[in-house]
Specification:
mainly alpha; Rna Polymerase Sigma Factor, Chain: A; Arc Repressor Mutant, subunit A; 2 domains; 8 helices; disordered C terminus
């Protein structure tokens, strides 16, 4: 019984410390606040189940991000066909932003997140973890279950792809 209370206290402490950061990380990946909230809760449920089975977690922050990452990737894979259909109808109904709106977007950080959302999932994930969430190369490698070399290479390629997307957006806005 004491073990159970200790596990609950540990999870509550981690929830208080990391839940908002995990929510923001997931939200950046899927751009759906309600679903990001659900996936954040699912992350802590999985971690609680893992700890309750007697498993120890040495680095809780890294472990939580890894679980959140895996759940988010599973969610994206499961819902990809639905999102493609939604995107198809959204783009057909919406002729696009006005020139004024495009200028506002360029002047704000939204441009960065828009460009980020156009990148391959691997690029987006590693950029968010390394540059937004400020994880080390080692921590990012653990979260993504990659080698440190793959993290560095993918980050480099991802940043180049991001720069290209921003440049394309800038060229489009200037026409």
């Amino acid at each position: 019984m004491q073990d159970n209370a200790r596990h609950q206290d540990q999870i509550i402490e981690w929830y208080d410390k990391y839940s908002m950061a995990l929510f923001k990380y997931i939200l950046k990946m899927i751009q759906d606040p309600q679903q990001a909230e659900d996936l954040t809760q699912d992350t802590f449920i999985k971690v609680y189940t893992y700890v309750k089975k007697g498993n120890e977690i040495t680095y809780p922050k890294t472990f939580l991000y890894r679980i959140a990452h895996n759940l988010t990737v599973d969610h994206i894979r499961k819902n990809k066909p639905i999102q493609m259909i939604k995107d198809f109808f959204t783009t057909r109904e919406d002729p696009g932003p006005s020139v004024e709106a495009m200028v506002e977007i360029k002047e704000s950080s939204k441009e960065l997140y828009d460009a980020l959302s156009l990148l391959k999932a691997n690029y987006r994930q590693v950029i968010i973890l390394r540059k937004v969430e400020e994880f080390s190369v080692r921590e990012t490698a653990e979260i993504l279950n990659w080698s440190e070399t793959k993290v560095k290479t993918t980050l480099s390629r991802g940043l180049q792809a991001l720069a290209n997307e921003i440049h394309k957006g800038g060229a489009t806005n200037e026409i």
